[in-house]
Amino acid sequence: MHPQSQQSSFSFAVHSRLEDTTPGAGGPGPRHGRTGTITTPHGEIRTPAFIPVGTKASVKAVLPGAIAELGAQALLANAYHLYLQPGADVLDEAGGLGAFMNWPGPTFTDSGGFQVMSLGSGFKKVITMNVPVDADKEGADDRVAVGKERLAHIDDDGVWFKSHLNGDRHRFTPEISMQVQHQLGADIMFAFDELTTLMNSRGYQEESLERTRLWALRCIAEHERLTDERSHRPYQALFGVIQGAQYEDLRRKASADLGAMDFDGFGIGGALEKENLGTILGWCSDELPENKPRHLLGISEPDDLFTGIENGADTFDCVSPTRVARNSAFYTPDGRWNLSNARFKRDFTPLVEGCDCYTCTHYTRAYIHHLFKAKEMVSATLISIHNERFVVRMVDDARAAIDDGTFYDLKAEVLGRYYA
To answer: Taking the CB of the first residue and of the last residue of the chain, which one, N or C, has fewer CB atoms within 10 A?
Structure first.
């Protein structure tokens, strides 16, 4: 696919498998969980790993140096947003995403497909996780959020969409997505795919899956061309994206089809019913190559993380830790609490007793409660640091537990307490 000297800078090695370290645990059926190492031109990622999201080349309210201190191994940025502002050419001129934001470690960019489709339907940041009863009714495939207009229009070649910033019209195709992401310069990027939701009919899911398969082939071809053309830049790994919604045959077909292509790894995306997350991920892991990493897109809740790890996901990303922090919510081993509550006004303890993050070792709940009430911006910074550390550490602990054979004990302890 690529000159060996370039591609050799990216690799994935499996270290230990959950089914080997805890045989017979976790119930019937295969357990695809494993630990491993992803090697990139900008360093290693020990997996499983949680990857904080820096949508616009910034983890909201947090300095890049603080992200490194809290143990994050890599960051993920958003191709759609960076394409619109400041422009992929600006990041290319700066030396790529990492150099632009002064982050020395590995970086990911998504393809922009999620934002084009979700913003294009007016749903903004939320794609429904529930199957509507009228999903197969006429018109369901063209649904938009109430009071919104459709900003994205899909054809077999690509997508026309309007910028949510100023209404300008733009075109994304597989080739353009690859060109944008090569300019952004992340170590790992994703093929351009069509996001479907659980609102789409079965017939549309089949059409979309074939469209995404053909787009995947075009992404690979353009990625090869750009890799050769831009040989002065470090090699960028390309991950295919597995769609198929809640349908077993479609998920397995997508995994087998893309798994046979020359991708460096895979993203598992699209709408996933929460209660079936593990089952759906298991279908994909059954079919995907064992020797390539799997990234589960948009996941950070503790139960979802343990389910994802158990069923074969190697890396995860989600905006939730910083998003909820801006509304004063912080994670504790006993669940998620809101610091704006009056009971914290005179609480002079850390957010979590014994937490090793910068916030918990320097500040009290009472102080951060005051900052939030006073609308001081640093409140979001301090809570975000804690929340990112909480999720990063949880996945790090799960990784260690797979290696030492205590994964299911840890899962029962953590989830039993968090959701009590």
So the answer is: C
CA–CA dist 114, 85 (Å, integer): 17
Q: Which two tokens stand for residue 363?
A: 């500040």
DSSP, collapsed to helix, strand or coil, labels residue 271 as: coil
What percent of the chain stands above pLDDT 70? 89
Exposure on the CB side of residue 279, measured as CA atoms within 13 A: 10
Cis upstream peptide for 293 (omega within 30°): no
Structural contact between residues 279 and 252, judged by C-beta atoms closer than 8 angstroms: no
Which position among 110, 187, 193, 257 bears the catalytic label? Answer: 110
Which residue in the list 141, 187, 264, 317 is annotated as catalytic?
317
What's the CA gap between 387 and 402, in Å, rounded?
Answer: 23
Place of tokens 């993050």: 357
Instruction: Decide the pairing of beta strands 169-172 and 11-17.
Output: unpaired
Active site residue 141: no
Please give the DSSP secondary-structure letter assigned to residue 398.
H
- Torsion of Cα atoms, 58 then 59 then 65 then 66, to 10°: 160
How many C-alpha atoms does 420 have within 13 Å on its Cβ side? Answer: 9
Can you tell me the distance from the alpha carbon of 394 to that of 333, in angstroms, rounded to the nearest whole number? Answer: 10
Task: Report the 3 state secondary structure along 307-375.
Answer: HHHHCCCCEEEECHHHHHHCCCEEEECCEEEECCCHHHCCCCCCCCCCCCCHHHHHCCHHHHHHHHHCC
pLDDT, tens digit, 9 for 90 and up, residues 255-311: 999 999 999 999 998 878 889 999 999 999 999 999 999 999 999 999 999 999 999
The answer to whether the CB of 211 falls within 8 A of the CB of 156 is: yes
Examine the residue annotation and report whether 317 is marked as an active-site residue of this protein: yes
pLDDT for 335: 98
Q: Which residue type, as a one-letter code, is found at position 139?
A: G
127 pLDDT band (50/70/90 cuts)? very low
Task: Return the SS3 of 127.
Answer: coil
Pair of tokens at residue 244 = 């198929």
